[in-house]
Design a protein that fits this description.
The complex is a heterodimer of chains A (558) and B (340). Chain A is of the alpha+beta class and 558 residues long. Chain A is built from 20 helices and 20 strands. Helix content of chain A is 31%, strand content 20%. The longest helix of chain B is centred in the middle third of the chain and has 39 residues. Classes of the chains: A alpha+beta (558), B mainly alpha (340).
């Protein structure tokens, strides 16, 4: 660049055009001197309203009706615009959002919600149980084709006898029902009636009832929300939320460094190495970590030999050093888990411990299963066939690195492993759906309800369903069925604790790690709970605030 | 000449059909469809709903039937609606019964990419021609050598790496230029002059970087063209006549040396609409490259086909325009075409 400018000037000087070019460049430059940011962001200020918070997301939502959009970018924005009947509080217990209270009938089949009085949409029209009923009709409608319809299709009868009452009756008691009503965003009937949800302009110009309303959506660039003055839950502190669409995480990080955005999700390297090494960033950025409801695992195809043998599965579990993966791949920003539930929550069984790293035990188990190294090449054989398989994973750097560490550890106990990383759509349709794989490294992102019927129940093995590893255990099946019928949280907890114990013992998958969600937020944003409570960092984002002296000047004028 | 033109244009129709047929089948060779995206791998979603979606989009039908359906729509210039992006029209805007206008995806992305690439091409040409002439005139001297060195560096530097470095240096360390995006957040509140300034400063890096890294090829072209022409007899004649060096270079040599450039510019017309995925991703520009890449990753077939069809039509038109321009500029070619 410098070289280019120099040469160019030389050339153009001769033609006496240089002054024009330089003038042009000067005009483009924002020639204010880069003032050293001397603001003390650590000072405490009282909570006050106003200001703008800017974050960045990698993808643009396709629309803001999340029951059909499906992608996380859509629900991230629409979650600020639409309310649900119920929500999870700080400690992950359910409480009312639009609902003031709810009641489960004695036979556990009917749930009756009482709405808060005087609810209003942002356009001033009243929000009633008719809207909730209409939303339910929309989500189960064949024409809507919502991918999330299945939970709501179990409702046999839904009615709205008066504007404040909404009740649903299930064929049989369905424990995940309450969680499903904490997931469905209620849409306004008066604006959507008779519209095709797939093409309606409402998806890009929604009217909701939550803390914020859509101000402006510039395609491919940003989405601006502003405070909804008639919000049903009171007023949020921050006036404007702006989400900029920046697909590349390096570019996002540069914007964060320059102070043009206030928050972004980080990878472990930025969190643990880059930011701590730069005092000028530490001065203005606060780092947060929170456990998500997701984990990475190594899954066996249980229909393929030798993975039908529990001794082989346990041997591999013992042979993998999970701490090494957490330290090496996640730079220590993850934890070792023993059950498919977030540690520290009610559903996670505190008495279970992950398989320790024990290569000798692994070798003994493999020997018991009939594997011996007969030809002395370091690879075990059974019936003359070497123990060799391929780990498939999608093109995800962290999963690929994990696979490499696993490859080395398994080699040490005499198993030959190859690794293949495949683009997502091909991976799913060519390998997962057809069951044409031995071992995969994948992850699950789960909801807050403990029901995992669709992942582990033996009836869920058809192509395209989620028990693609072919897990078939009658005890687990029974527990999962019981867990869906039991609405009493304490009894339900016991069921899932037992389920997790059987699962760990049976080792159909190897839990590799649960990585922390990592976020940097500019220190001008105050009122953030740290460390994050079980419900996560954003649980009280409506009370976050930006004190006036710390606001950006050019945008607060807006 | 006219019959030649008509023949060329008519030929484009079977060519386009052939291209679309091949593109359609290659697109379907890749495993997976819209229902296999990462968001659908959520245990709360069900296979039945995915199957319904496949039926809705006719993805359960044989590829040849799907191609027939696509051709039927294309016969009325209906590019269809995106699977992935809330059924947005692929090409041009539509108005629903309430008067809400939904902009087409290509309609939104194309102008952005076109502006960036056209500016880039103009800057590249504006720099490459004088630089190439100097390199030819000072052939073998230090000016030529430093230009070659500079070109070599520009040619070998990865564009994304240079982009990130310049974003850091000009945007973070010095705060001279915006880092990414097309407009500032307060763009709407600015006056006209500031709006122009804002747009140009956002376009500066995305336009300059490909121009600089793309300079090498065209500079070399101009230089070699000039060197070739300098050895022609008529240049010797012009010099012998006692014409000024300026006149020899700019009137006699340059015009002939620039002829091959017409072909290059003609061939780069389709390139004008194909944005660079990497540059658009880094600079957060919602252009054609990003649109195409996302469509491929999501298996959003109508969008992929729409872009490929428009791209190939423009390629064919670009070729035609280049040939015509060549004939217009060079009498030797013109006579050859007419005789044809």
């Amino acid at each position: 660049m410098i070289k280019f400018a120099f040469l160019n000037n030389k050339l153009l000087n001769r033609n006496a055009k240089a002054s024009g070019v330089i003038l042009f460049l000067l005009l483009l430059c924002n020639c204010s001197k880069p003032a050293q940011d001397l603001t003390d962001y650590t000072k405490t200020y009282p909570s006050q309203s106003g200001g703008t918070m800017i974050d960045a997301m990698t993808g643009e939502p396709s629309g803001l009706i999340s029951m059909i959009a499906g992608e996380s970018a859509s629900s991230a924005i629409s979650g600020n615009i639409f309310n649900k009947l119920l929500k999870y509080n700080k400690n992950l217990d359910l409480e009312g959002e639009l609902a003031e209270s709810w009641q489960v009938s004695d036979d556990q089949k009917t749930i009756t919600f009482k709405l808060k009085p005087n609810l209003k949409w942002a356009d001033g029209k009243p929000l009633t149980s008719a809207d909730v009923l209409w939303t339910w009709h929309a989500v189960i409608d064949e024409k809507t084709g919502s991918p999330y319809a299945s939970d709501y299709q179990l409702v046999k009868k839904a009615e709205a006898p008066d504007p404040l009452t909404f009740s649903v009756t299930y064929e049989q008691a369905y424990a995940p029902a309450l969680d499903s009503w904490a997931g469905l965003q209620v849409l306004p009937e008066h604006l959507l009636k008779g519209q095709d949800l797939h093409t309606t302009a409402f998806a890009r110009n929604p009217v909701g009832s939550h803390y914020y309303k859509l101000d402006n959506w510039t395609h491919g660039e940003n989405i601006k929300l502003s405070r909804n003055p008639s919000s049903v839950l009171g007023q949020a502190k921050i006036d404007h939320l702006v989400s900029r669409i920046i697909p590349d995480s390096s570019a996002q990080f540069l914007e964060l460094m320059a102070g043009n955005i206030d928050s972004m999700g980080l990878d472990p390297i930025k969190y643990a190495r880059i930011i701590p090494a730069r005092p000028e960033l530490l001065q203005k950025l606060a780092l947060y970590k929170e456990l998500g409801n997701s984990y990475t695992y190594l899954g066996f195809n249980l229909k393929h030999k030798p993975f039908d043998d529990v001794r082989v599965r346990r041997a591999i579990n013992y042979a993998i050093d999970k701490q090494e993966i957490i330290d090496g791949v996640y730079l220590g920003l993850g934890i070792n888990i023993a059950s498919p539930y977030k540690p520290g929550t009610r559903w996670s069984n505190p008495n279970l411990a992950p398989y320790p790293y024990d290569p000798n035990k692994a070798k003994a188990l493999l020997k018991e299963a009939g594997f011996t190294d007969t030809n002395g090449d370091g690879i075990l054989e059974r019936d003359g066939k070497p123990f060799s398989f391929e780990i498939l994973t999608n093109q995800n750097k962290e999963r690929e690195k994990s696979a490499v560490l696993i490859q080395r550890r398994l080699k040490a106990v005499g198993i030959d492993v190859k690794i293949r990383a495949i683009e997502w759509a091909s991976f799913i349709s060519r390998f997962i759906k057809t069951g044409d794989f031995d071992v995969v490294v994948l992850g699950w992102s789960l909801g807050l309800d403990p029901d995992q019927y669709s992942i582990w129940h033996s009836s869920q093995q058809a192509p395209g369903q989620f028990n693609f590893i072919g897990y078939n255990n009658s005890i687990v099946d029974k527990l999962l069925e019981q867990g869906r019928l039991e609405l009493n949280p304490d009894k339900r907890m016991k069921i899932y604790h037992e389920f997790a114990r059987v699962l760990l013992d049976d080792s159909p998958i190897v839990f590799l790690s649960a990585g922390y969600g990592l976020t940097a937020i500019h220190k001008r944003v105050k009122g953030i709970d740290s460390p994050a409570p079980p419900a996560g960092l954003g649980w009280n984002s409506e009370t976050w605030y930006i004190p006036e002296p710390l606001r950006r000047n050019e945008i607060s004028a807006n | 000449m006219l019959s030649y033109l008509i023949k060329r244009v008519l030929w484009m129709i079977p060519l386009l059909i052939g291209i679309s047929l091949i593109s359609f089948f290659i697109m379907h060779l890749a495993p997976g469809d819209i229902t296999n995206n990462e968001a659908s791998f959520n245990p709360k979603t069900s296979e039945e709903s995915r199957q319904k979606l496949r039926e809705l989009y006719n993805l359960d039908k044989p590829v040849i039937v799907q191609y027939g359906l696509w051709m039927k729509r294309m016969a009325t210039f209906d590019f269809g609606n995106s699977f992935a992006s809330h059924h947005k029209p692929v090409f041009w805007q539509t108005t629903d019964k309430d008067g809400n206008v939904t902009k087409g995806m290509i309609q939104e992305a194309l102008p952005i990419t076109l502006i960036i690439n056209a500016l880039g091409l103009i800057i590249t040409l504006a720099l490459a021609v004088p630089v190439g002439i100097i390199a030819a005139r000072k052939y073998g001297l230090w000016q030529d050598k430093s230009i070659t060195l500079f070109n070599f560096i520009g040619f070998s530097i990865p564009g994304f790496w240079l982009s990130l470095l310049l974003m850091y240096w000009l945007g973070v360390v010095n705060n001279w230029f915006p880092i990414s995006g097309l407009h500032s957040l307060n763009y709407e509140t600015l006056g006209n002059w500031d709006k122009l300034k804002d747009s140009l400063s956002h376009l500066f890096l995305p336009v300059i970087i490909p121009s600089v890294t793309g300079l090498a090829g065209i500079t070399l072209f101009v230089k070699n063209g000039m060197l070739d022409v300098f050895h022609q007899d008529y240049i010797t004649t012009a010099r012998a006549k006692g014409l000024s060096e300026h006149k020899v270079v700019y009137t006699h040599a340059l015009r002939n040396a620039l002829l091959p450039l017409i072909t290059i510019v003609g061939l780069s017309i389709p390139g004008l609409i194909g944005g660079s995925v990497i540059a658009e991703t880094i600079f957060a520009i919602p252009g054609m490259g990003k649109l195409f890449y996302d469509a491929v990753m999501m298996r959003d077939f109508p969008v992929i086909m729409g872009i490929l069809t428009i791209g190939s039509a423009l390629t064919l038109i670009g070729n035609l325009v280049a040939d015509i321009a060549y004939a217009w500029a060079d009498p030797r070619v013109r006579r050859g075409v007419v005789r044809d």
